[in-house]
Amino acid sequence: PLTHIHAFTYSKRDGTASSTLKLPQVRGDIAKARHKELTAIIKEKNYEFRKRKNRGLIVLAESGKDGIYYGYDQYYNRVTIHSSDIDLKSNWLMIDNVEVGYDENIAYFKP
């Protein structure tokens, strides 16, 4: 399923190729509503995907300190990793189980 998208609301810019097209313009309020609907659909699809793919995640702990680290799994989903035992920063980790939150996954790493 489509689980990530970089959507933006189009706005006409003078001097661009698209500004010379003779197409009907979508009203701003309609464009914003469509953007909101599209991003909500993708967020829900991502959440459902992460609920199915919550084991065997390979995560690079890119940043963090004091026992809380942040990274992304092989599906480009954000993971917050809690570890009180060792510094995980800049390490690749195999995460066997995560708690799937609506905005991100949460893992508790034990070596």
Description:
This protein has one helix spanning 28-52, and strands spanning 57-65, 68-72, 78-82, 91-95, 99-100, 105-108. It has 111 residues and is α+β, with helices and mostly antiparallel strands. It is built from 1 helix and 6 strands.
Percentage of residues in strands = 25-35%
Low-confidence stretches: none
Please identify the structural class as seen in this structure. Answer: alpha+beta
Morphology call:
elongated
Please list the strands of the largest sheet in the order they lie side by side.
4-1-2-3-6-5
The string of secondary-structure elements, in order, is HEEEEEE
Determine the number of helices (DSSP H or I, runs of at least 4 residues).
Answer: 1
Radius of gyration: 19 Å
Helix fraction?
10-25%
The number of E-state strands comes to 6
Summed over residues and divided by their number, the pLDDT gives a mean of: 93
Distance between the amino and carboxyl termini: 33 Å
The largest pleated sheet is described as: 6 strands, mixed
